[in-house]
Amino acid sequence: MSFDIHGKVALVTGANRGIGKATVESLIQHGVTKVYAAVRNLDSATSLVEAYGDRLVALKLDLNQPDTIIQAAQTAPDVQLVVNNAGILRNANPLADDAIAALQSEIEINVFGLMRMAQAFAPVLKANGGGAFVQLNSVASMKSFADFATYSASKAAAYSITQALRDVLASQGTAVLSVHPGPIATEMAQDAGLAEIAESPSLVSEGIVAALNDGKLHLFPDTMAKQIGEAYQPFAINIVEADLMAG
Asked: Which UniProt keywords apply (predicted)?
């Protein structure tokens, strides 16, 4: 299901830095008329407001606080594109003392946060003609990495929910895009010790614009992601994107 962002109104979570900030910039450069920069701390979006003026509205939203998500949906009734970028990563292997606590916190944000965003904004997108919902998942949703095992598990769950959203939202004309970056030059990658192999956030943000226009379900934007995406493509086409219930 193709979606042209030109002339549309968008909302981006985690918009103040990294992939979120790059996405805001790419969306505006490609013709989005307004972006709601959804952030936990409004002050963190000051530089974006100064750069883009009335084309950008800072909006308080915390995936760990459901009330802020509901309020954001009420404050932004004109949204036609949602990019759910915000997420957290805890460095924990399955045997680490804090592994269960790490997974609990990651599930809360990366999975429940996604579900809360979808539940709050699906009616908004429907009211505005269908629109599109973009979820930032990860290559870790398909390949577990031992040092980030709990993060990988949370992203695998988020990817599963994203697949279901594609099926559920199709009836209201909402396109769904699942984004699977590898190491990207963000604070998260720095904290995870991946800075040396990380690539530009613009690969993700520009890839989102192109993938929406092409009507794709999956985006594998960087070197590592493309390697995984090429191997995964036959399964994606024949299983994930197929209607197995059709008989």
From this structure: Oxidoreductase
